Amino acid sequence: MGDLLDKHIVLGISGGIACYKSADLVRRLIEQGATVDVVMTDSACKFVTPVTFQALSGRPVYTDLWDNRAPNNMVHINLTRQADLVLIAPATANLMAKLAQGLADDLLTTLCLASTKPLMIAPAMNREMWQAPSTQRNVSQLRTDGVQILGPGTGEQACGETGDGRMLEPHELVAAVRAHFQPKTMKGLSVLLTAGPTCEPIDPVRVITNRSSGKTGYALAQAAHEAGAQVTLVSGPTGLPCPPGVTRISVQTAQQMHQAVMQHASTSDIFIAVAAVADWRVANASTEKLKKTDGQPPKLEFAINPDILKDVAGMANGPWCVGFAAETTLDPEQAQAKRQRKAVPLLIANLAQQVMDADHTTIHLVDDTGMTAMGTGHKLDIARKLMSEIYKRYRQHQA
Ligand code: C5P
Known about the structure:
By secondary structure, the protein is of the alpha/beta class.
């Protein structure tokens, strides 16, 4: 069971083709431990039948304001009384217009009007409908009213067009719901992270890089966002989607990463250097593709890249810094020496061969008291634990 244990969610479904994805959404919410009451509009029932959602949620599905299964016949009041969150996915342009105006002409809109519970909506519509001035007016009104708008995503649409208006994928919606329920201990803080590898060009088609999936850095960025921080993630090339709510700056080389970090470091409270930065770059990189001349390898010359972490840690009034060290052997003395060399209060040590590309990790905390194991787990679970350790230490340092 996951993060949504004991959480009661009313899932509103309005009539868009993205309805079919809501079936997967229900399954994923339940997998996380949530209880899900599904409410469907008439149009939603044209796309997918209530039976699908009843089977997946294991609970009755509500479609009618006049539902006499409720002894008091006030299903619009009863449903949200016991809920922790109302999520509408998909939310059509019409539904959003009704919510923005406070209309209540069916069960879903009436229960929203009668509810004081947090409301999240995931718009889904054709790109022209999304861009229509009236829709944009409604979106901004809903934001002002405290509604959290999730997405929309961009890409190919069911109508054959491409653009903004796709409903976020079920896993992204679940991530947003999980984030909503995390304690917001880091609200008001700004966290800067590096993640992924850097790529140092040899010529326009060849690079020197480090093995790094970016998963740990991305999980930490997500954990910081979930804890309420404002998060900037300076990322080398990875295939990972940016965690919702995080600002990502994409870079290729160590020098670009250094520059982006330095631009943001003085306004950050915490800096976490997770990236596997290339120690050297090719000083004589070619602007033309190198030819394979007579089977001779090219003569490459190297220059040392800036040490981003060391530079940030050395700033007067800079952020509180955390470093990472992926080594092939875990030696407490070497880890301690590295922490001191980098001049950071906290270094996270792990075994490179165990963590690279993996979804699980094992980490050790190295500080001025020595090295302590923090356990093994899924990278996001470990990231959340680590983020609360980082926050605790940051607070102690501020006191
Ligand atoms: O020296 P080493 O690469 O082992 O140090 C690892 C730590 O230093 C990591 O936190 C990494 O992100 C950071 N680092 C950096 N810039 C470099 C090299 C490493 O920020 N050029």
